[in-house]
Amino acid sequence: MNALPAELPVHPAWNTPVIATSLVLAPGPVPVSIYADELWHLAPLVANPSATRPHLDWARFPEALRPQVQLAAWKMINTPLPASMLAGHPTWHSRLGPHGIHDTVLRWQRFTLWLHHQGFTSLDQINDGVWVTWADHVARQQGAHRSTVTKDLVALTRLWAFDSATRAGAGMAMPPWNHLGVDDFLPTTPAPGRGENTTEPISPATMGPLLIWALRMVDDFADDILAAWTESRRLADIAACTPASPASKARLRHYLQDLIARSQPVPSRPNAGNVHALANTYIAGHVGCSSSQVNGLLAAAPWQHLLAYVRNNPGPCPLSTPITGLVGDRRWAAFIDFTEIRELLRHLGTACFIVLAYLTGMRPAEVLGLESGCCPDPDGGRHLIYGRVFKSAADADGNHHSAGHVREVPWVAIAPVVTAIRVLERIVPDGGLLFDAATHAFQNTPTASATSIGQEGLRRRIEAFAAWASALALRLDRDHEVVPEDPYGTIGLARFRRTLAWHIARRPGGLVALAIQYGHMRTTMSAGYAARGRDGIHELLDMETARATADTLTTLHDDLAHGAGISGPAARRAIHAAAHAPTFAGLIRTWRQARDILSNPSLTVYDNPRSLLMCVYNRDRALCHRQDATHAPRLDRCRPSCANIARTDHHAAGLLAHAKVLEEQSASEALPRPLADRLARRAGQLRELARRHEHDRIHHQEPTV
Length: 705
Prior knowledge:
Elements: E1 39-41, E2 55-57, H1 66-78, H2 83-86, H3 98-117, H4 128-139, H5 146-164, H6 177-180, H7 204-241, H8 246-261, E3 266-270, E4 276-278, H9 280-287, H10 291-299, H11 306-312, E5 314-315, E6 326-327, E7 330-331, H12 341-360, H13 364-368, E8 383-385, E9 388-389, E10 405-406, E11 411-413, H14 415-427, H15 455-475, H16 495-506, H17 518-528, H18 537-561, E12 566-567, H19 571-578, H20 591-598, E13 605-608, E14 613-616, E15 645-648, H21 649-666, H22 673-696
Parallel strand pairs: 3-5
Antiparallel strand pairs: 1-2, 3-4, 6-7, 8-11, 9-10, 12-15, 13-14, 14-15
């Protein structure tokens, strides 16, 4: 039997702590539950600031079976799984984290409810027949897959193990799959794909405008919004701290009488019924009186008409801070309204998250775990971000560690990321989380807490930010920068990391927004992250590169099969590569599949729509690398004379279309003559490349050796 922590009794009493003091990772506002509580809070075990705080609800268990399951759960929380249970199960952990405990007990709950409906009142009534019947029951459930049923069976193995390790346990029988293996008890349906590699990337049509507005918020609007927040706090402090006096009351009356006499709107705010009410705090701060005097004035008989006047003449609450941010040549707002400042601050924090999550490759929990001071200014070289990783964090016994661990190799930060961090550091207290939940509520004076904004709340904030940005785009006559709905659903949080890898692999050297180069991003990640420290982003990049290669070869294979021509020094090598396309048609889901494609030198074909060519990469012939020879091309450095170039009919058509655009621009009388001549020369070069393609093009039916 595994020993309990020294501070716990062998058998729990009604007031025994559910979690031993030595196991508490996050002492704080949620106290440790006692054994008699109906709800057992697992929050003291959660040290990840962005993770949810689960609890166990014993009211949902059948009354007769509840005490036996509670005892096993208490044992599971406070002791490791017996060592004998780990033999032959290399992926099992001796201790589960709080979310693993919660998931396991939920599976126990479903099992005990089923037992209750079958008429069982004690766990010692379970025999092999009951186990087999239950396994068959869960395997036949709609949507059941091998992975989910395996989790159900493993959870019940833990129930048996901890029941057996408890002196007062029920003495339930060993599940047969514990010694026979689980395969015979599982459905044949494989589990659907899950994880980062099967997450759909955000559509480029959605990601482009979303990032544009996020960067504008961080770079151009942040100073205006933070200055307005300071001004709004000053007005709120005046309203709260100014003592009521006859002089302040006279100022208030004179202010309102003057507005009414001139038929001017009165500063107002929408209330819960979307009806305009008097903006008490703004008015009090503006005229220098107590907010209680505004309320008192409304109760006075001579002023009872004021609310009706406000409803008919609602006015804004402009703050005095100037607007300096521009979108093109226009100010992004005429002024910032006192009633909108909290919403703008929430959008600013959301924009910072989008920039960080998308331009670093961090997972959501890693972004939400960053603290003020995580990115110090370097003496020289690149900015580095020091933070924690949570997904792979483990203690000395190999069990998940909720608090995470400091990343051995820091993240490399490009300039927009550093700017976003500096903006967040102006919002949160020193040493606090950059996305501290209490601070980002923007209610009162910020005080650091141990939790970050919840991931579900942040998802809603992203959707709200996209809607706000779209409305601003329309107001500023920038219809092309409206953020459209993504065809694959809500934007969420986890999709940013996958989308970054998708864009780097699919549009190398291209631009997404405001001249952020994906080629530079890939170089930064490859040069700045050690393979062990990148925590999976390198494999994700390779996955997307392999998928892009497969798509390119499949498209080329189909085009050639339908009679398209191809030209260039690497044309015949491209035809050879396209012949392999049917071999890996379909989705590439594992890193091993991606590695097989990327390691095959005959399949290294990369489309470069920006340069209107295709690279059939051979590093010995590549001109994009001067000194270094790498396994991937630099498509932002394509050279017209490179021996790796091939062009299809589609590329040639693109050359002609681009040449036509340049010729039309060069014919404009508004263009300076030297620039017009340069555009005309470039158009001539493109037409010559298209002519050469037409002359040299070959088909896949022609001999390729």
